[in-house]
């Protein structure tokens, strides 16, 4: 698959949702053609190598019934990956049922997953089907799987091993024809070592692991996502937005995004609401300070690249509203100190505005 591939579901294109080329040309549709009705709530944008690897794995595992463990930081889009798996599977016309395992206490979670019989507990005035029954023939997505209590881990292990369960308060054994997809932002291997998660359950869940990369590791995707959401929110509220300024894009690309895609989406929405102009500028983003700022890294080369990127966008200017320090979220004095420590010649970036020859050409590209 080309490195220019963008992964976008597009229900408007002829009734299908697709993975397609970054230029979004209709004649270059690739992979994962599925009914639009199954994916109308799925939107995965990106052309980075990191995301392409994830989506290629989704394409391979989706046609199977294998259990999938999706891992990744908060806000990376784990639920969207689960939806894409379901939408591209033979079960796409059957239900996709989501359960947040952290949202309910153990007693209620058992009833939510497996259902209950009338009189099983106070308030159980009638029989109720659980999520595994409701997902019959389809997919069940168990989010925050790392929050399960030991008792619920045992119950889930039985379903995965034997494909059967009983409703709470019931004696009838029910069969589960369900594809199981789970997600967590926790390190389950570490939880196993600490005795908080069953090793045998992890083995059952980890048939096909899919690690969703954080946004800071998806080079090039920030711009694509930001521009898409700027258009979307402008259309929603009836504003005309023609794009983001070069400095605005540099600011977004330099920020480490601890909240990942979800945070970027919220930042762009706020900027669209607040702007009085057609082009979004950095001051609108109101990015918070982060504990480990964008210029601090255990890898000096990574820190150097971020600083040089900001200097390139600001044409070597460190201070001021459009300076590199503002885009990186640090004070000018702090940035100057790090520039000296890393041996960066900030003056060389002044040439980006006037010439592209010699040394400056390598810096400005």
For the report, how would you describe the main beta sheet?
Answer: 5 strands, parallel
Beta-strand segment tally: 12
Shape: elongated
Helix content: 25-40%
Mean pLDDT: 80
Radius of gyration: 24 Å
Total helix count? 15
What is the CATH superfamily of the largest domain?
P-loop containing nucleotide triphosphate hydrolases
Spans of at least 5 consecutive residues whose pLDDT stays below 50 are 1-40, 292-299, 353-362
Given the helix and strand composition, which structural class is it?
Answer: alpha/beta
Give the tags.
365 residues, alpha/beta, Rossmann fold, Helicase, Ruva Protein, domain 3, 3 domains, five-stranded parallel β-sheet, 15 helices, 12 strands, disordered N terminus
Describe the structure.
The chain folds into 3 domains: 152 residues, P-loop containing nucleotide triphosphate hydrolases (Rossmann fold, 3-Layer(aba) Sandwich), CATH 3.40.50; 71 residues, Helicase, Ruva Protein, domain 3, CATH 1.10.8; 70 residues, no CATH class. Helix content is 40%, strand content 13%. The chain is built from 15 helices and 12 strands. The strands form 4 sheets. The protein has a 5-stranded parallel β-sheet. Strands 1-2-3 form a 3-stranded antiparallel β-sheet. Strands 7-8 form a two-stranded antiparallel ribbon.
Q: Topology, pairings included?
A:
Blueprint lengths: L4 E2 L9 E6 L7 E7 H4 L9 H13 L6 E4 L6 H10 L8 E5 L5 H9 L16 H4 L4 E5 L6 H13 L1 E3 L6 E3 L3 E6 L3 H6 L5 H7 L2 E4 L9 H17 L5 E2 L1 H9 L5 H15 L4 E2 L19 H15 L9 H5 L3 H11 L15 H7 L1
Parallel strand pairs: 4-9, 4-10, 5-6, 6-9, 11-12
Antiparallel strand pairs: 1-2, 2-3, 7-8
Helix pairs in contact: 6-8, 9-11, 10-12
